[in-house]
Design brief:
Blueprint (H helix, E strand, L loop, with lengths): L2 H30 L14 H32 L4 H10 L5 H34 L7 H32 L4 H24 L6 E3 L3 H14 L6 E4 L10 E4 L6 E5 H6 L2 H16 L2 H23 L3 H5 L8 H16 L3 H22 L2 H14 L8 H7 L5 H9 L10
Parallel strand pairs: 2-4
Antiparallel strand pairs: 1-2, 3-4
Helix pairs in contact: 1-2, 1-15, 2-4, 3-4, 4-5, 4-12, 5-6, 6-10, 7-9, 9-13, 9-14, 14-16
């Protein structure tokens, strides 16, 4: 057993145990508070709705624990169990070029991994979500989504993988800089293209036809200095009763999107307040900051990969006998999440900080009480727990816990809404 194997196994064990421990804390904490609605919510959320949220959270957490153990076993099977080695040798036997072989191996890993994860996806959609009344996905839609995702992987993923592997093979010692440039260019292209060309393959997007609400939104956009290519309603109810809103895209191709489920549950004033929060992310440059963070992390990751791929023990320590650029890339992609677990609190802290900043912006554009009412409705309708375990939340939650977020907004009630 070489040093790479030892480091991998220790990190994998610590990551698994840490996440299982956090999951158990979450379950115990939520169940301990199942029969009492937090004081700040008692006038707005019935006890039965609170219990449903607790049961939903516990069920999802238990399923996540099973997926975590399953995923850990699969990772061991791919690496030390010889799965990647067998797949690599099978593709090598065809006698193709290193780049073509690498594309075949990487796409095979993606497809096989998706098939191995399919039982959990089916259970989550048609058992867990169905049990709590959220699922509206039909088997036909589920299968159609899988086929579309597979075709997109071939049409978009295959050329990208080919280009990356070609650069790794031919660009010399500084290949990682060129690959980083390609990756960032691709990421920005997807941010621009997703709302107009890819998302419509999965959902219908109709222009908002409520003239009064549309005018309210247009006035808000003008106050915030936000230009978009339109305000759209997405048929989220086709798959789930969960509600949401977001904006996506870059440049002139930015879109504001409301789930139809959200528009049915909120008043126009509440919709405006929710949108003001989303626009807060725009005005505080959160998207730009996240792109910069992604750029820095991806550059660092590619540099680390460039060092590791020169070490024969990196391959043998993870169950692969023949070094190659594509196998180095696959191994790095597989083991990176193991180590990133320990950075989760830092990333979650940054995300929650952005949410507070967006709430502060929204509180200046709309009455904070309106945003509070909207959030409480969304907590109830999405069965979001009001009592997460604080430590679990610190690792996993991109948004502040409900009581903390509502308390933060409540402190804004003394401030008069003013244009930003």
């Amino acid at each position: 057993m070489n040093l790479i194997t030892e480091i991998f196994l220790v990190a994998l064990a610590l990551s698994l145990l840490l996440q299982l421990w956090l999951d158990r804390r979450q379950i115990r904490h939520v169940l301990a508070h199942r029969d009492a609605v937090p004081e700040a919510f008692r006038d707005h959320i019935p006890l039965e709705a609170h219990r449903k949220a607790a049961d939903y959270t516990v069920a999802r957490t238990r399923l996540g624990m099973a997926e975590l153990v399953y995923g850990t076993l699969l990772l061991l099977g791919w690496t030390l169990g010889g799965g990647l080695e067998w797949l690599d040798q099978a593709w090598r036997s065809l006698g193709w070029s290193p780049v073509a072989t690498g594309v075949g191996v990487i796409l095979s890993v993606l497809v096989i991994s998706s098939l191995l994860d399919l039982p959990f996806a089916v259970y989550r959609t048609f058992r867990l979500e169905e049990r709590f009344g959220f699922n509206r996905t039909t088997p036909a839609t589920f299968v159609s989504d899988l086929i579309k995702q597979f075709l997109l992987t071939l049409l978009i993923g295959a050329p990208l993988v080919w280009l990356v592997l070609w650069l790794m093979e031919t660009a010399g010692p500084n290949w990682w800089l060129y690959v980083w440039g390609v990756w960032m260019g691709f990421s920005l292209l997807m941010l621009w293209a997703w709302p107009a060309f890819i998302a419509p393959l999965f959902n219908k997007f109709e222009p908002l036809d409520d003239e009064a609400l549309r005018q309210r939104i247009v006035n808000l956009l003008e106050r915030c200095g936000f230009r978009s290519s339109g305000v759209f309603v997405m048929d989220g109810s086709r798959r789930s009763s969960h509600g949401n809103a977001y904006f996506s895209g870059l440049g002139t191709n930015k879109r504001i999107v409301f789930f139809d489920t959200l528009l049915k549950s909120l008043t126009p004033e509440e919709v405006e307040a929710v949108l003001a929060h989303e626009l807060g992310h725009f005005r505080r440059h959160h998207i730009r900051k996240r792109i910069v963070l992604l750029a820095g992390l991806s550059l660092l990751g590619l540099w680390v990969l460039a060092q590791l791929m020169q070490m024969p023990e990196f391959y043998t320590g993870l169950g692969v006998s023949t070094p190659s650029t594509y196998m180095a890339l696959i191994l790095f992609m597989m083991i990176s999440p193991v180590f990133s677990t320990f950075l989760s609190p830092v990333m979650a802290w940054f995300s929650r900080r952005h949410e507070f900043e967006a709430d502060d912006f929204a509180a200046r554009q709309a009455d904070p009480r309106t945003l509070i009412r909207a959030l409480v409705k969304l907590y109830e309708e999405n069965a979001s727990t009001l009592t997460p375990d604080p430590l679990y939340s610190a690792f996993h939650d991109s948004h502040p816990p409900a009581p903390v977020r509502i308390a933060h907004l409540s402190r804004k009630l003394k401030e008069s809404p003013q244009p930003a």
